[in-house]
Design goal:
The protein is α/β, with parallel strands linked by helices and 343 residues long. The chain is built from 9 helices and 16 strands. The longest helix has 24 residues. Bound molecules: flavin-adenine dinucleotide (FAD) and 2-acetamido-2-deoxy-beta-D-glucopyranose (NAG) (2 copies). The site of one 2-acetamido-2-deoxy-beta-D-glucopyranose has 4 residues, from α5.
């Protein structure tokens, strides 16, 4: 039996995890990841990597909850292993505080993380600027470590990585049987999907090993996330802004906002400043599509538009995308393609 050839476009956290779920769950297939950029040059590499999603009002909440819980369980088991620091994973506790209490007093993911509770007056003494907050323990997954590990895991499962920019899906016709679209913000140019837009995020990585807890301003852009070898300070959320260079005005604003909640940051040394474009869409696109041209059929599975929650949702959406690929593969095996039956 010939192998079903699957191409995954994109080597960010979504593309690599999707490729792994396919390679590890579908027998008799070959998986190739094709991407213009690999770690450390993807948007995913810029993410702080906290597992704590923003709620997307246009996606059913049980779907978001499942994506988050699948991802949490996967990263949780890494956190419980000896390799955790090499893979860039750790538990992280801290405070999410609000100047204005949120409409939803309890987020949909409250019982998915550990030790979630609403802060009481005693907890709030730490932050005289606010009147409401949550405290919880979640996981941090730093992609500059995690993506190289995913690449290795994919190769161990028989997958391949290939550098290249795809300008038209039909370039791949005849070479692959199923194409999986995990191109992040690249999907806009690649597919002409105008529903996806960038939300620009600028961050600092600083050396401040004395910080052990996260601080995040709910409904705002300011956050402090201590990681394995640096602390990520953010950030900005600039809709439809494509500027990839660091803006010194943003740098100043981010640093001042973070120092207001953690004054000791004034002593921190800057290691890195960077920008990423969150691939944002009202509804994350996770579905099958069949394209036809000149009597040729192309099977696509889309998995893009994770916005500011790509790390928080990646494993859950990867599992679901692999399921869709499995359905396409079943169809192909039972039907002649390219004038040749795959059975
Ligand atoms: C500042 C900042 C902080 C963030 N913090 C968090 C956080 O704490 N927690 C969280 O959950 N999320 C966070 N996010 C969001 C997260 O980074 C994204 O949701 C996630 O990285 C999206 O992953 P992706 O794999 O879809 O896209 P990307 O990482 O952008 O990967 C896209 C891939 O597709 C490739 N590609 C695109 N077009 C083409 C083409 N035409 N041909 C070939 N290859 C192509 C690219 O080269 C790349 O390999 C943050 C984002 C930013 C910017
Ligand atoms: C706040 O909550 C903590 C933890 O549950 C508890 O120990 C403390 O007594 C509470 N303080 C007040 C003022 O309610
Ligand atoms: C990605 O999605 C867009 C939007 O529908 C689509 O037009 C394009 O063909 C897809 N690209 C790939 C490589 O699947």
């Amino acid at each position: 039996m010939d192998k079903i050839r699957i191409a995954v476009i994109g080597a960010g956290v979504v593309g690599l995890s999707t490729a792994i779920c396919i390679a590890e769950s579908i027998p008799g297939c070959s998986v190739t990841v094709i991407a213009e950029k690999f770690s450390p040059h993807t948007t995913s590499d810029v993410a702080a990597g906290i597992l704590s999603p923003h709620f997307s009002p246009e996606t059913p909440v049980d779907r978001q909850k499942r994506w988050f819980e699948d991802t949490f369980a996967h990263i949780f088991s890494i956190a419980q292993s000896a390799e955790a620091p090499v893979i860039g994973v750790q538990f992280l506790s801290g405070w999410e505080i609000f100047k204005e209490p949120p409409k939803e007093r309890i987020p949909f993911w409250a019982d998915s993380v550990l030790a979630f509770r609403i802060m009481n007056d005693s907890d709030l003494k730490r932050f005289p600027q606010v009147t409401f907050g949550w405290t919880y323990t979640t996981l941090l997954c730093e992609c500059t470590y995690y993506l190289p590990w995913l690449e290795k895991r994919l190769k161990n499962a028989g997958g391949q990585l290939q550098a290249g920019k795809i300008t038209d899906f039909w370039e791949l016709d005849g070479k692959y049987d199923i194409i999986v679209n995990c191109s992040g913000i690249g999907a806009r140019a690649l597919t002409g999907d105008m529903k996806i837009y960038p939300v620009r995020g600028q961050i600092f990585k600083v050396h401040a090993p004395w910080l052990k807890h996260f601080v995040r301003l709910g409904n705002e852009n300011t956050y402090i996330y201590p990681g394995i070898s640096s602390v990520t300070l953010g950030g900005t959320r600039q809709k439809d802004d494509w500027q990839m260079s660091v803006d010194p005005c943003d740098s100043k604003a981010i640093f001042e906002a973070c120092c207001a909640y953690e004054p000791s940051l004034k002593l921190a040394r800057t290691l890195f400043e960077g920008v990423g474009l969150r691939p944002t869409r009202a509804v994350l696109r996770l579905e099958k599509e069949k394209l036809e041209r000149d009597g040729r059929l192309m099977q696509l599975v889309h998995n893009y538009g994770h916005g500011g929650a790509g790390v928080s949702f990646h494993w859950g959406t990867a599992k679901e995308a692999a399921q869709l690929v499995q359905e396409c593969a079943m169809e192909l095996r039972c039907r002649p393609i390219h004038n040749k039956c795959k059975l």
